[in-house]
# Entry
Amino acid sequence: MSDIPVGLTQVADKVDARLEQLFADERAQWVQVDPRLVEAIDELARMTAGGKRLRAGFCYWAWAGVHDGEIDEQPIIDAGAAFELLQVFALIHDDVMDAADTRRNRPTIHVEQAKRLTSNQWRGEPRRYGEGVAILVGDLGHVYADRFVGGAHPTARNVWDQLRIELNLGQYLDMQAAASGEVSRETAQRVAMFKSALYTIVRPLQLGAALHGRVPCVARSTRCVRAPDRPGLPAARRSARGLRRCRPGRQARRRRPARRQADRTGGGCRRTSIRFPAQGPGHDRQARPV
# Structure
């Protein structure tokens, strides 16, 4: 853990505590219904343990970079926990799709559960049972993640929904390209954009800002959000502080000077355009740089 920036470990500790509270509460509730139900929660908790909490960190420091004054941290910690649960959902399902035997030096859930069926001499096919349990545990993580952001600002909820769609479509494209034997730089870059760039960095930053309702001008901006040089401030927070300058009503008059400044400093960055699907009458279908 010594190689992990303090700015991340501070966030990780808070997110870990929130996850532990969630699992304790859920165990206490469901054990009264049927003790076997706790097994699914325990499997999910095991998969959630560990990790650098990068997405939670990016989300937190974006939030910290745009909020003013002392504000309750609970919504942003819940959002960070949601990212970790969504990540576990994706990992568990990936293990099933990839037929992986281990995850973090331990047997994957579907392998462990398949062995359980065999050792207990239960009925059915071990592989199908193991994969079925794993899928359900992953889905449980997805449900908990959704619950954590259920009361978030509508703008944040829109970012969350878009992130989940991108993650699933990116995985679909990845699987199809692998099955068809496609060797395409364009496809590889698109998969990496959906499953890595957007999922790990861009959307967590936007969601943190969106908890204050400030992300639309960032998502639709035609300029890059640049981080002011401030030594000692965590990198994610330096990036997020640029979001302060991108608020409704200020975007139009700030866009051109910001672009000239980027040109003068030679620090312009390449923008990636995403075309969003229509979400109702009057929805802007134009490509939106992120």
Observations:
- Residues 154-180 form the longest helix (27 residues).
- Residues 82 and 145 are 4 Å apart (CA to CA).
- The two ends are 31 Å apart (CA to CA).
